[in-house]
Amino acid sequence: MSGADAVILDLEDAIAPEDKERARESVVEHAAGLGLPVIVRVNAVGTPWHDADIAALVRLEGVALMLPKTERPQDIAAVVRRIGRDCPIIALIETAAGFSRLHDILPSNGVMMAAFGSVDFSVDIGCAHERLPLLTARGEIVWRSRAAGRAAPLDGVTTALDDEMSLEADLKHATEMGFGGKLAIHPKQIDAIHRAFMPDDATVAWARKVLEASSSGSAARLEGEMIDRPVVERARRIWDRWGNR
């Protein structure tokens, strides 16, 4: 396999209209045998294929759903009702309308996390698909995800397949902004994504030292750094996730 944490089976943009039905049946047939977590990106609400996509997901167990162009909490509620069981939903935010309702979308029942559809969003608002014009949007999707108690969101794709420097720069930006992962469009991007979001050995060792130094519960000093509650909390998150790797 590619080494990805999960695979997205795309029924939306990657599939021509005349192939939608065949692709849907292929997903139903093969999703269970892929050997890693599966996310199905259905067609958006209001398209001719959305209802059939949701009906197909009812036949699948253990998959997550990615809802493109998520714009209303009512659409999420309708999907949850139709599926009729627990099915984690990734709200793909790709439009200004979706961003304007993040405060209602993210707390919706069934939403596991958001993902930033940065390419479609830049088209929708008429800006360049570059880091600076999308800075505010990235910041908002991160802090609103945290405020809603959802997992850190997934950043959008890097479209330059053969430009490793662009990918590395995008990954540095995403991790600094607080994203929890990134969408990939080719297996060659996966190793770099893993490296970017996984702390190195020195960072894990730092987290262990901080937790040891703060075990008394009072503020402490470690290697010239003041260890107070926010620093301890960051160290605890790193250690809880990566300390036993």
List the helices and strands and how they pair.
Elements: E1 7-10, H1 20-30, E2 38-41, H2 50-58, E3 63-67, H3 73-83, E4 89-93, H4 96-100, H5 102-105, E5 111-116, H6 118-125, H7 135-147, E6 154-155, H8 164-177, E7 181-182, H9 190-197, H10 201-213, E8 220-222, E9 225-227, H11 229-242
Parallel strand pairs: 1-2, 2-3, 3-4, 4-5, 6-7
Antiparallel strand pairs: 8-9
Total beta strand runs: 9
Distance between the termini: 21 Å
Structural class: alpha/beta
- SSE string, helices as H and strands as E: EHEHEHEHHEHHEHEHHEEH
- The geometry reads as globular
The named CATH superfamily of the largest domain = Phosphoenolpyruvate-binding domains
CATH topology of the largest domain: TIM Barrel
Strand order in the sheet with the most strands: 1-2-3-4-5
- Percent of residues in helical segments? 40-55%
Number of helices: 11
Mean pLDDT: 91
As for the number of domains, it is 2
Q: Enumerate the spans where pLDDT stays under 50 for 5 or more consecutive residues.
A: none
Which CATH top level class of the largest domain fits?
Alpha Beta
Main beta sheet: 5 strands, parallel
- Quote the beta fraction: 5-15%
CATH architecture of the largest domain: Alpha-Beta Barrel
Measured on Cα atoms, how large is the radius of gyration?
20 Å
